[in-house]
Amino acid sequence: MKLFVYETYESMSARAAEAVMYVINSKKNAVLCPASGDSPAGLYKKLVAHIKENEIDISGLYFISLDEWLGMNGNDEGSCRYHLNNQLFHPLYVSENNIAFFDGRALDPQMECERIDDAIEAHGGIDMAIVGLGMNGHVGMNEPGTSPHLHSHVAEIDPITQQVGQKYFKEKKEIGGGLTLGIANLMEAKNVILVVSGNKKAGILRKILEEEISEELPASLLRNHPNFSVYLDAEAASLLKK
Question: Which residues carry out catalysis?
Fold first, then answer.
C-alpha cells in the first residue's frame, strides 16, 4: 500500500488526477472504474481540465460502473450515473458505447450484474479503479459483512449508508438496495486508488488503514491488493498514528 497525504483537498485531487492520467497515457484503451461521491469529485474536475487543456484523445478509454442504487439509472437525479454524467462523462463527451454502467432499473438485476462482469472480461479487465470510503467502511456498495469473494452482485444497503446517502437527493429516497462490483472485482483490477477527504472520514479511515483487515471493514480488504494507493487530505489523515 502506498499512502499519500496532502495539505488541501485541491492538492490531493490534483495528485490523484495525475495518477489516473499516468494510466491513461500508458494505455490508450485503458479501462477505468470511477466511483461517484464527494471525495473523488475534485479529482474528476482536475482530470477533465487537464484532458481538455492538452487536447488529449480519450476516445479509446472504456468506463465501468462501480455501483448504482437499485431502482435508479442516469435518468434519476442523484443517482451514481447522474453524478458521473455531470462530473466526467458529459464534460469529456464520452460515447455511450464506451460506458458499461449498472442500470438499477433493469428488470433482472442479477442479469445486469452478469452484463457488467462480462463487459470487464471483454475489455481485458479494469486498469484502474477509483473508489471512495463509506462512513461504515464500505467500498462501492460492499457493506460490512459482505463476502470478499463476490463479483458484481445485488447488495442490501446498510442503514448507515441509507442515512448518509440521502445527501445526494433533494427529497427522501428509499435506497435499500444497490448493484455493485464486488471486492473480488476490485482485487482483480490492475490498480486501485482510494480517495478520502474531510474530518468526518478521519475515524473510519484510521480503522480501515490501521485495524485488522476484516470483512466487517470492507475497504480494509484492499490493503491486500498489490497496487493499492491511498490519497488523503490533511483532515482525513488527522487521526492516523503512523
Answer: 67, 136, 138, 143
Q: Tell me, what CATH number does 180's domain have? A: 3.40.50.1360
In a domain, 158, yes or no: yes
Q: Closest by alpha carbon to 150, among 113, 120, 104?
A: 113
* 241 within domain boundaries: no
pTM: 0.94
User: Could you give the number of structural domains in the chain?
Assistant: 1
Residue 238: inside a domain: no
For every residue of 117-177, DSSP letters joined together read: HHHHHHTTS-SEEEE---TTS-BTTB-TT--TT--SEEEEPPHHHHHHHGGG-SS-----E
* Residue 72 CB contacts under 8 Å (≥ 6 apart), including other chains: 78, 79, 80, 81, 104, 105
- Closest by CA position to 146, among listed 215, 213, 75: 215
198 lies in some domain = yes
133 has pLDDT over 90: yes
Residue 108, domain extent: 2-233
Burial letters 116-134, b for 16+ CB under 10 A, else e: bbebbeebeebbbbbbbbb
- pLDDT higher than 90, residue 167: no
Query: What is the average pLDDT value for the chain, to the nearest integer?
Result: 95
